[in-house]
Fold this sequence. Notes:
Layout: H1 3-13, H2 16-26, H3 34-44, H4 50-60, H5 66-85, H6 90-106, H7 110-126, H8 130-147, H9 154-191, H10 197-202, H11 204-215, H12 222-238, H13 242-258, H14 268-283, H15 290-298, H16 305-325, H17 329-338, H18 352-368, H19 372-383, H20 386-389, H21 394-408, H22 412-426, H23 434-444, H24 451-470, H25 475-480, H26 483-492, H27 496-506
Amino acid sequence: MSKIQSLITLVHSLTHAEKKAFRIRSGRNKQQPDYLLLYDIIDKHPALSKTEIQALFAETSPGATFETTSKYLFELLLESMLTLRKEQDSFTFLYKKIIHARMLYEKSLISESLNILEEVIRLAEKFENHNALLLALRLELDYLLAAGFPMMDEKTLLKKQFKLTDALKYIRKINEQSSLYEILKHRILNKGQIRTQKQKDDLNDLVFSEISLVSSLNVDNFEISKLHQLFQSNYLISVGDYQSALNSYYELNNLFEENKHLWNKPPIYYLHTLEGILESLRSIRNYEGMSYFIDQLKNIVCESVTFKLNVVCTTYLYELFPLLDHGEFEKCSKLMISYRDSLYEKFNSLPRSRQAELSLYTSLVYFGNGEYQKAHKFLNQIILHGKNYFSLPLFRTIRLVNLMILYKMNDIDLIKYEIRTMMRDIGGFERNYRIERFLFRFLSNPLPSPSFKRIQVWNKTKKELDDIKQDLFERKILQIFDFTAWIESQLTKIPLSEVLQQKNALL
């Protein structure tokens, strides 16, 4: 991302409080400076490109240098945000206090410096911020050494050293545990969900390492307990054990609820926890149980504009899934309309993974309502920029849904081209899904016109589709969308909404 694009993104992500703080800070100048003119252009014209912003700035401030002004504005915004953040965030507050202690020490105000460090140590222990605790303890010992350990016996000195050693131990263990969780998430995000028993076995080294590590740690520590439950629940979801994953997520949710003072700002891990619970509940078709946790999502309070948009998107998707899974496409459309201003108008501000997810499910709603042109247009936002989304596991499913849309639009030539391309791309993966291979065959051959012949085809394929649905590794892609239901609707000429309703009634 270019520097000016970073500045544009930063300005548009500012909260109301951050904008107000910046205005107050800038209002001290008698004349309106160039950087404030640039800020107003970006803030008041969100649709302008960076080239248009640069041209407009040149008109309003002909004597100013755009690059210098934009760089200076970026730094001022960060300083303004930091001033506001120190009153809201324990992390920022602690490190600000540590800087104050260093400044006082440099001015030979050693007693005052040690008093601040003592406060930092107490608060760092309360908030379980081991990195801040380690830094404060180290500075305290350095300053005491320089002062000749005034009024301190050896027992007190040893106690402080032991506390520092414990902080180091926790940091090392938490880092080891974080590393295992990061590797697990990297494999899931870049290789997709588990498709074979071999892929499942390949994760065992991580599982054994994580269990061995946790057994040697103090599980009463919030960070250690959090990382353990996150690792377990993500692993269990990746192998399709949704009930066990749900139990692990419940424990994690209870842990968060009991330790709200330790939440990150924004509470990213808490969002991941709620999303994991909702995903597990959807997987076992416990839609009633989802309502409580959807309300928990709505109750999350955060100043970050980007994070709030992510929460809104997550809330919308899990309100949509029960309707989509039951084939209630008209209700899905009404829900979409209710989120137009709060979500769809801010589509480009979402992370790429969320953009892909939102595009997929929005296209499925249009598809279910027979609005194939709209479905194709919405999905093209992702497909036409495939190089930006190709690494996402969801991209393969997006291309499958696109094939269904093309099929309903009778674009046979493009279907054949897309299938050849997908087969070539899938060749790089360890294994493709059975439902993918089935869809390629199904879409490559025209359906017989007479109804009785279509029923014959359905009777022949029904057993294979039932086997696919029972396959543990196929359930992951069928949870995104039940492709078997669509195939059944094409062969039996029963509307997709009715087929989905019948299938859910049997569960």
